Amino acid sequence: MSDSPADPSAPGAARIRGLEQVDRLSVPLPHGTEVTTRVERLASGGRRIPQGVVGRVVRAHDGGFDVQIVGVGEVWFARDELVPRRPGQVQFAQRREAAWTALTPCVVLETRVGSHAWGLADERSDVDVRGVFALPLPWSFGLTEAPKDLVSADGSTTYWEVHKLVEQALRADPNTLETLFVPGARAVDAIGEWLLAERDAFVSKALFGSFGRYAMSQLDKLTRSQRLAEHRDLLLAWLCEEPAPDLDEVARRLSAVSPREAPTPQDALLAAKTYVKQLYRSLWDQGLLAANDFKALTAYARGGGQRPPSARELRPKNAYNLLRLVATATGWLREGAPTFEASGSLKARLLDIKAGRVPLEEVLRDAEALAPELEAAHRDSRLPEHPDYARADRLLRRVGEEVARRWVLKVPGPLGREAPEAPAMTWKELE
User: Fold this and answer.
1) Parallel, antiparallel, or unpaired for β 48-49 and 41-42?
2) Is the pLDDT of residue 193 over 70?
3) CA angle (271, 318, 100) in 5-degree steps
4) I need a surface site. Which of 65, 118, 278, 306 has the fewest CB within 10 A?
5) How far apart are CA 89 and CA 87, in angstroms?
6) Angle between helices 214-238 and 294-302 in degrees, nearest 10
């Protein structure tokens, strides 16, 4: 087995016309990037993975990447053993990396969010950071669209541009309001201080929908997904029979066991076929099927490839966060101020849910039990019906004037004298 990288100039090697000068071995590979392997590898169980296989980046660690490969699962490759598959991915990775490098000095506010802010972290919990950055004045002009967010290569840190943050906050977006209101929110610039001083302008009874109702609807979807997963396990077992049943036979069997009611047997068959198509489309999107069709689904079932978690293993890790959102919304509507850190019996219950010790059906029942309290808090809340749009508008204008002042007067700092140069508009022919 050869472990040396393939010669990129060899006959048949993939080339990206118009980007021949780009070193594809050095561009970043963000999560989700489609890549092509440059070496042959043996997977667990001795299965050979030939050079030139296409996969999708799942995560970065130890100087390389875990790559999801159809019919095999996750396999680790070093960075120089992978190249991005498509020209657009090369450009996207370059733009994202360049924006991150140029504009992170322009961050005006940041905070640690997620399980650490909620008091639910353990030794395995990731550290998630969100924040806000301001665009230097020259970045607002020209044909090149300015970045609206900055994302670190590992996805753990996200910064939003000020205007985007305000728009999201006015919609009562939970992630945005959490960024502004968690106790650890830290301004690193006067503009960040202004955002914290005006954050109450974004708070209204809209929390009821964006936090509470949203969480309830998502929990209901998770429950339905679990039921579908139970059918998936059964369906994959059927496809391993000899001979393998065709689509019509699978749909007939599925319609007979499905708990979903249908007006007629024909409607039940149609619903079953629709589910089968949704299944192979989902597995295709996850990179687990060689093609987006029933034939590929059959080959996958019979090939012994990696399986998604079974229905018994499905304990969606975000279920506890959704329940936390319901509790946060209830408290905020009732008290007029947020409490993000969980405590007491709620904290104990959330940790049990996070650890997978609570069936999803019980999580949904917990949320349904909280629903009357949420409704009452919304009905009696003293929060305004709508956010203060005029105040938010004045804030954005103040920020814009300050950014212009620093640039024109060449005030020391990343928004003035040391502002990063705005990217020039270029044309690259991608034939």
Assistant:
1) antiparallel
2) yes
3) 110
4) 278
5) 5
6) 70
pLDDT band, residue 46 (cuts 50/70/90): low
Let me know: does 358 contact 322? Beta carbons within 8 Å: no
Residue with tokens 């509470």: 212
Tell me if 199 sits within 8 A of 180, measured CB to CB: yes
Domain 1-85 annotated CATH 3.40.640.10: no
3-state secondary structure of 144: coil
Tokens 């997620």 map to which residue? 114
Q: Is residue 229 within a helix (H) or strand (E), and if so which, with residue range? A: helix 214-238
Beta bridge partners of 157: 129
pLDDT of residue 197: 97
CA dist., res. 275 & res. 362, Å (int): 25
CB 6 within 8 A of CB 40: no
All residues at 6 or more sequence positions from 250 whose CB lies less than 8 Å from its CB, including other chains: 235, 238, 239, 272, 276
Residue type, 15: R
Q: What angle do CA 80, 85, 88 make, to 5 degrees?
A: 115
Burial class (CB in 10 A: 0-12, 13-18, 19+), 395: buried
**What are the pLDDT digits (tens) for 263-292?**
888 888 888 888 888 888 877 776 678 888
Domain boundaries, the chain: 1-85, 95-203+387-408, 204-385
Give me the pLDDT at residue 122, please.
Answer: 79
Contacts of 347 (CB under 8 A, 6+ apart): 119, 120
Cα–Cα distance for residue pair 35/17, rounded to 1 Å: 17
Residue 108 has pLDDT above 90, yes or no: yes
Q: How do beta strands 128-133 and 34-37 pair?
A: unpaired
